[in-house]
Amino acid sequence: IKKLAVLTSGGDSPGMNAAIRAVVRTCAYHSVECLGVYRGYEGLIDADFKQMDARSVKGIINKGGTILKSARSKSFRTKEGRKKAFENLVAEGVDGLVVIGGDGSFTGALIFNEEFGFPVMGIPGTIDNDIFGTSHTLGFDTALNTVVDAIDKIRDTASSHNRLFFVEVMGRDVGHIALNAGIAGGAEEILIPEEDLGLDRLVDSLNKSRQSGKSSSIVIVAEGDKIGKNIFELKDYVDENMEGYDVRVSVLGHMQRGGAPSCFDRVLASRMGVKAVETILEYKSNYMVGLLNGKMELTPLDKAIKGKTKINLELLRVSDIMST
Ligand code: F6P
Fold first, then answer.
1. Per-residue pLDDT tens for 159-174?
2. 24-55 burial, b if ≥16 CB within 10 A, otherwise e?
3. Which residues bind substrate (predicted)?
4. Would you say 221 and 231 are in contact if contact means Cβ atoms under 8 Å apart?
């Protein structure tokens, strides 16, 4: 193997730059050329490439976003698009592709491999932590710190005005961000898709918290929660059905995806980049690198895509006890 390519795809996440740096520098360490691909699979189809060496990735370990840019490519979903991508990689003499992204990006990589036999390797980069085969995806830890910082600030104003705040956090179909940040931010209630306890439990919990003497409350709502009302409808529901609450809503949105990666994400990205490149140099393909029990482990890409992450039941219990 003489030349690898690297791209970032799907929603960006803090730590992607640190992972690009690790891939490029591991290539340099092993005297393998490295080609950066701009805009994910779009750039693969448009041959939007940049030759990278160890110095091209200086000063980026601490930067959020991705210097290679990211995209959710529609063209790569077509056979013609993937054929063009393959031809471009062959023309450049690339022997393997490292994809930094989430499950949608890995699905694309797997189809590409099935069609053309092209070696692919995945690095899980998403704030959602929704990928099987790793305890942490790149960016999850940073996003948690960002959300906790926001909750702390909201709590200041919530307690000054004796208000109830519904705070919506990202996470797509899973509640890992909500549960972890909710515990760390001292939320009174956390609504996640994995635990659909319904409106009654929310009302009950708010009543109890008021009876216990709390004058302000924060409820964290995962964007994918299944309570059946969006966050604004939840506010309306409480306004209409519960006495004496002054309710506000805060949707944190894309600020959760930005910012300098945490120490944890920088170290994780560096480890994952090294493992991904060294695995592909061993002529292995179709794996995702992940962190399991403190070690870098490989999970077949199809398992990483199909497997489900589980919510930590102990954390659920801790959150229940803490809202007493
Ligand atoms: O997967 C990361 C994520 O930020 C999710 O948490 C969220 O549902 C989604 O991407 C938002 O996507 P977009 O940036 O396309 O609005």
1. 999 999 999 999 999 9
2. bbbbbeeebbbbbbbbbbbbbbbebbeebeee
3. 126-128, 163, 170-172, 223, 248, 254-257
4. yes
Average pLDDT of the chain, as a whole number: 96
Look up 302 and say whether it is catalytic: no
Calpha distance 214→242 (Å, rounded): 15
Q: 11 CB under 6 A from ligand 1?
A: yes
pLDDT for residue 244 is more than 90: no
More confident residue, 95 or 197: 95
Q: Is 21 annotated as a binding residue?
A: yes
Distance 131 CA to ligand 1 centre (A): 14
Among candidate residues 14, 35, 3, 21, the one with its CA nearest the CA of residue 272 = 21
Residue bearing the CA closest to ligand 1, atom 3: 11
CA–CA separation, 313 and 95 (whole Å): 43
Distances, alpha carbon 121 to alpha carbons 72, 130, 132, 269, in Å: 18, 18, 15, 14
- Which residue's alpha carbon is at the smallest distance from atom 10 of ligand 1? 11
Exactly one of 12, 46, 48, 128 is catalytic; which is it? 128
61 pLDDT band (50/70/90 cuts)?
very high
Q: Is 195 exposed, middle or buried (0-12, 13-18, 19+ CB in 10 A)?
A: middle
Query: CA nearest 131: which of 288, 255, 283, 297?
Result: 288
Amino acid at 161: H
- Is residue 82 marked as binding? no
Ligand 1 pocket, 257 CB below 6 A? yes
Confirm whether residue 205 is marked as ligand binding.
Answer: no
